[in-house]
Amino acid sequence: MTGEETIVPEDTSLTPEEVAERLRIKKNTVYEMIKRGDLPAYRVGRKLRVLSDAVDTYVRQGQSPESPGNATVATAPLPPAASGANPFPATATPAPGASARAPLPTPFDPWAAPLPGMVLCGQDPLLDILANQMERHPRGTAILRSHVGSFNGLLSLYQGTAHIASAHLWDSDSGQYNIPYIRRLIPGIPTVLIGLVRRMQGFYVAQGNPKNIADWHAFSRSDIRYINRERGCGTRVLLDEKLRQLGIDSQQIAGYRKEVFSHLSVASAIARDEADYGLGTERAARQVSQVDFVPLQKEEYHLVVKKEDFVKPLFQSLLEIIRSAEFRAELRGMGGYDLDGLGEIVAEI
User: Fold this and answer.
1) Helices and strands in the chain, H and E counts
2) Please, which residues have CB within 8 angstroms of residue 233's CB and are 6 or more apart in sequence?
């Protein structure tokens, strides 16, 4: 070969998955380390990269990834966040004899728009509308939807695997929605409760209600078949709390163990005569033919956010959307929602 061969330096950056494998920890823990500033990272398009030298330094210092630390892990001092300086300047000049490499973007800020997005837990269709509007907002971001029930949503918020959880958990002792559960499931972490809508919960029954199913005492009857929701969702919690109040043994209810994972699935089962009644929201009953709705209890549907996150720009953009005329108009068009209190701060817990 004639002339000098150009040697391209090996890429010494790692993906979060590769960092997790090297440190033998979970990928979510790597993201927490980046968020805390324990590992400097930068963003290339939609992907995160971590300098290999920074990981090696982290290992040499022997710090546990599970807890915040005070060690400096960057190979060069990082400027204060408020200064706006870039520790990876795009115009850096390569050393003599080295080939030029692609400029590195600014360090990754887990809460800065527009990436990597926010994880929102919940099942109601209004959350899809909220997610779509958040993605179109000039200061918004992508919303990643986690279709889990209220109980698991609050646990995800506590464990740091979600940013926002929706909830409609009724406590029979206090008559309150959500607040008692937040105190139990997110202990010691200040949270903010944001009002969304009020929804009517009731029974789905066959058209004309031939079995004459009228109130909660239907669960004491042996001549009708029930279809249940999954454990942890707000509708299931409402049912079990009501049964406790009435002193009804759930094991005596025909169909109690048969579970489905949405209001529409419950209503559809009634329409197909696979069950005589099931519990769900009024709006879903309107979407299935040959099903009537027996109203029982109006419930409160809230969003739950950690207080430390609530003050950040992305969450303020989310609140702006919830309080907007456009969002209210879309929910009104869907029907089945009481919008009184939409966007209000219900409580700080």
Assistant:
1) 12, 12
2) 123, 149, 150, 151
What angle separates helix 313-322 from helix 325-334, to the nearest 10 degrees?
50
**Bridge partners of 167?**
302
CA nearest to 70, candidates 38, 41, 25 = 38
Q: Which residue has the tokens 């009804």?
A: 248
29-58 burial: b if 16+ Cβ within 10 Å, else e? bbbbbbeebbbbbbbeeeebbbbbebbebb
Task: Give yes or no: residues 223 and 187 share one domain.
Answer: no
Domain carrying residue 60: 13-68
* Same domain for 153 and 234: no
Count the Cβ atoms, other than its own, within 10 Å of residue 254: 15
Can you list the positions of beta strands (E) in 123-207? 143-146, 164-167, 191-206
The two three-digit tokens of residue 194, written as one number = 């944001």
202 strand-pairing partners: 280, 295
Same-domain check for residues 191 and 315: yes
Asked if residue 216 belongs to a domain, the reply is yes
Give the CATH number of the domain where residue 59 resides: 1.10.1660
The number of folded domains in the chain is 3
Structure tokens at 168: 């409609």
Domain membership flag for residue 8: no
**How far apart, in Å, do the first and last CA atoms of the chain sit?**
71
Pairing of strands 191-206, 291-306: antiparallel
pTM flag (> 0.85): no
Tens-binned pLDDT, residue by residue, of the chain (349 aa): 444 433 333 456 788 888 888 777 777 777 777 766 677 777 665 677 787 777 777 766 654 454 444 333 333 333 333 333 333 333 333 444 444 444 444 444 444 433 357 999 999 999 999 999 999 999 999 999 999 999 999 999 999 999 999 999 999 999 999 999 999 999 999 999 999 999 999 999 999 999 999 999 999 999 999 999 999 999 999 999 999 999 999 999 999 999 999 999 999 999 999 999 999 999 989 899 999 999 999 999 999 999 999 999 999 999 999 999 999 999 999 999 999 999 999 999 9
